[in-house]
């Protein structure tokens, strides 16, 4: 009887040991599966991140010129993950940036549509030497002249004038914009324009080139040296944010001025583009060569002039600060491979 009980206990012990072994093996198999799944998931996330990085690298490095249609692919690697990216121009101001990354069997491809200002298209869109808001007043319209061609541009921009053919639109002297919204340049809204300016001024001042030991020195009122490419500040195209009520007295400059409110230029020579949310006033012989947008209207004195020039307007819009590409939609990633 005792022998029978011992035999049963032994069998039970063996069965329990076998069950424990099977359970341990099952746990091991599950753990191994979870580990493999985790590693696979981590690899997928890593590859997707590198594909996004490829897009970013292409945006930063692959734009090779305003006239490029299709920019060749760039390549790189991040650890075991390899990637390529490229930029394709879909229209004058819309680009598709693609990036692909792969590691072993995992491959991910992403694309991002971006907007990038094209100087010639922006000048075409504005279409006039002066654009005012729908109900805003203009005094001194006789002081607006249109210039075309390099010879008529007078002092030339640092990079000269782009070639103009017979199909290029001639600027009108004055245009009324019925849109009651804030000043914008295509995909660059008012807030973005202000964010992209690199200098800020307020109160009263006089823009003049500032150089030390042959080097152009950055300062709020250093707006470059128009028509003097051989000088230290000849290549500096300023991008300036002006507080409401700024008064510019004398001096000279080139580039882009974005004014939050009214802006007055008295005896100043400025080459480029002036964007004003309030009233633009040109006094005491002030001359703006390029184009201007004044939502609140404009007052051009009898001794002052606004000279419409595509050459200088395009040069101002070509400033690096305005050329950075921006996503058309935040988070607007496209999966070309589904």
Report on the architecture of this protein.
The chain is α/β, with parallel strands linked by helices. It is built from 6 helices and 22 strands. The strands form 4 sheets. Strands 5, 7, 8, 9, 13, 15, 17, 19 and 21 form a 9-stranded parallel beta sheet that branches. α2 crosses α5 (310-317). It is elongated and about 125 Å long. The mean pLDDT is 81.
Task: Please trace the helix and strand order, writing H or E for each element.
Answer: HEEEEHEEEHEHEEEEEEEEEEEEEHHE
User: How many strands?
Assistant: 22
Mean pLDDT: 81
Can you count the helices?
6
Instruction: Provide the number of structural domains.
Output: 2
Helix fraction bin: 25-40%
- Overall spatial form: elongated
What's the SSE blueprint?
Blueprint: H1 2-61, E1 70-78, E2 81-89, E3 94-103, E4 106-115, H2 119-126, E5 128-133, E6 138-139, E7 144-147, H3 149-152, E8 172-177, H4 190-196, E9 199-201, E10 204-205, E11 211-212, E12 215-216, E13 238-242, E14 246-249, E15 252-259, E16 263-266, E17 269-276, E18 280-283, E19 287-294, E20 298-300, E21 305-309, H5 310-317, H6 320-323, E22 326-327
Parallel strand pairs: 5-8, 5-19, 6-20, 7-21, 9-13, 10-14, 13-15, 14-16, 15-17, 16-18, 17-19, 18-20, 19-21
Antiparallel strand pairs: 1-2, 2-3, 3-4, 4-22, 11-12
Helix pairs in contact: 2-5
């Amino acid at each position: 009887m005792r022998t029978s009980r011992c035999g049963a206990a032994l069998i039970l012990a063996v069965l329990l040991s076998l069950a424990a072994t099977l359970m341990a093996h099952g746990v091991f198999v599950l753990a191994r599966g979870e580990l493999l799944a985790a590693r696979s998931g981590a690899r997928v996330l890593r590859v997707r991140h590198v594909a996004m990085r490829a897009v970013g690298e292409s945006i930063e490095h692959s734009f090779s010129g305003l006239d490029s249609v299709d920019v060749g692919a760039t390549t790189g690697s991040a650890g075991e993950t390899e990637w390529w990216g490229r930029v394709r121009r879909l229209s004058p101001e819309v680009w598709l940036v693609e990036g692909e990354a792969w590691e072993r069997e995992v491959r991910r491809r992403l694309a991002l549509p971006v907007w990038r200002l094209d100087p010639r298209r922006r000048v075409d869109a504005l279409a006039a030497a002066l654009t005012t808001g729908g109900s805003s007043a203009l005094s001194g319209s006789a002081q607006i002249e249109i210039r075309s061609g390099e010879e008529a541009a007078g002092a030339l921009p640092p990079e000269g004038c782009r070639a103009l053919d017979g199909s290029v639109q001639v600027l009108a002297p004055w245009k009324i914009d019925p849109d009651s919204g804030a000043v914008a340049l295509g995909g660059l809204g008012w807030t973005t324009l202000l964010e992209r300016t690199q200098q800020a001024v307020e109160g009263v001042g006089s823009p003049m080139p500032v150089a030390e030991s042959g080097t152009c020195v950055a300062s709020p009122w250093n707006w470059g040296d128009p028509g003097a490419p051989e000088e230290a500040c000849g290549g500096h195209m300023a991008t300036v944010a002006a507080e409401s009520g700024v008064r510019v007295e004398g001096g000279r400059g080139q580039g882009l001025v974005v004014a939050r409110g009214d802006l007055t230029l008295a005896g100043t020579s400025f080459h480029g583009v002036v964007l004003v949310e309030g009233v633009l006033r040109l006094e005491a012989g002030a001359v703006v060569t390029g184009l201007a947008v004044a939502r609140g209207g404009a007052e051009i004195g009898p001794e002052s002039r606004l000279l419409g020039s595509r050459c200088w307007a395009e040069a101002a819009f070509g400033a690096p600060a305005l050329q950075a590409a921006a996503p058309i939609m935040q988070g607007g990633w496209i999966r070309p491979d589904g």
